[in-house]
Each structure stands twice: as structure tokens, then as C-alpha cells.
Design a protein that fits this description.
Number of helices: 8
Strand content: under 5%
Distance between the termini: 37 Å
Number of domains: 1
Oligomer: single chain
Radius of gyration: 15 Å
Largest sheet: none
CATH topology: Globin-like
Order of helices and strands: HHHHHHHH
CATH architecture: Orthogonal Bundle
CATH superfamily: Uncharacterized conserved protein DUF2267
Length: about 140
């Protein structure tokens, strides 16, 4: 039996993973998946519930499931305002690999998101972030591919 919706989401998910691998310069699929999860979760938790849901609607079905994993909408948005606080969250997710550059992780995932998520949605997300955190994403080239 073939289920086209599942085949499409798998294909799209593997495309995102491949692109993140290319951005990071690695052949490690697990690292790319972990990077995607880390950035999406910490970005999601910094957004309002409405904006988090709007972003989810733009994601492939399988990645949307990853995005919603462990979400607690009653405690968001979290009040992280500074660059290092945000990067420390990413760093903590990669504590078994201390050589990972959290800024590079954020930029890699954001660059892939820019190729697959509507630019208007990405602009909305950036507008909600404090300046110091927004700058991490903008340093990857803002919202245009």
C-alpha cells in the first residue's frame, strides 16, 4: 500500500535534512535532525501561541510533528531576551558535542527555512524576537534566499 501524503512528507523531510547537512558541512544526518529539532523548539518557545501555530502550518507534516513535540503552550513565550541566553539553549542541546557552534546551527536551520517557509511568515517571526536574538537569524541573510 502506498500513502502519497506520507511519501511526500518523508521526501520533504529528507530534503530539509540534506540541506541542513550541506549548510553545516557534515554528512551526519542525526546531527542535522538534532539541529532542526533544537532550533525549531527554541524558536517556537520564544513565539506567541498564535505565531507558533502559524509557523507550524508552513512545515512539512513530519517536521511539524517534531516541532510540536513536548510543546507546552501554557508557558510560552519564554522570556529569553539576550543572544547568549538563546545560544546557550542550543549549546545545551549539543552538550555531548562541545565543538558545535550554536550560531552555525541556528544559521543553517534558518537558511533552510528561508527556502521552504513563506518569507512573510519568517518576517513575522523576526518581528517578534528581541533585537539580540533577531540578529542571530538576520546574520544568516534575513528572510530572503
Amino acid at each position: 500500500m502506498k500513502l502519497p501524503a506520507i511519501e511526500r512528507t518523508l521526501q520533504k523531510t529528507f530534503q530539509w535534512i540534506k540541506e541542513i547537512q550541506e549548510e553545516l558541512g557534515t554528512d551526519n544526518e542525526r546531527m542535522a535532525w538534532h539541529a532542526l529539532r533544537s532550533v525549531l523548539h527554541h524558536l517556537r518557545d520564544r513565539l506567541t501561541v498564535n505565531e507558533a501555530v502559524q509557523l507550524a502550518a508552513e512545515l512539512p507534516m513530519l517536521i511539524r510533528g517534531l516541532y510540536y513535540e513536548g510543546w507546552r503552550p501554557s508557558i510560552v513565550p519564554i522570556k529569553i531576551r539576550h543572544r547568549e541566553e538563546f545560544l546557550d539553549l542550543i549549546r545545551k542541546d549539543f552538550q555531548r558535542n562541545p565543538d558545535v557552534d550554536p550560531e552555525k546551527i541556528v544559521r543553517a536551520v534558518w537558511n533552510v527555512m528561508k527556502r521552504h517557509v513563506a518569507s512573510g511568515e519568517l518576517e513575522d517571526i523576526l518581528s517578534l524576537l528581541p533585537k539580540e536574538i533577531r540578529e542571530i537569524f538576520e546574520e544568516s541573510g534575513g528572510t530572503s534566499a
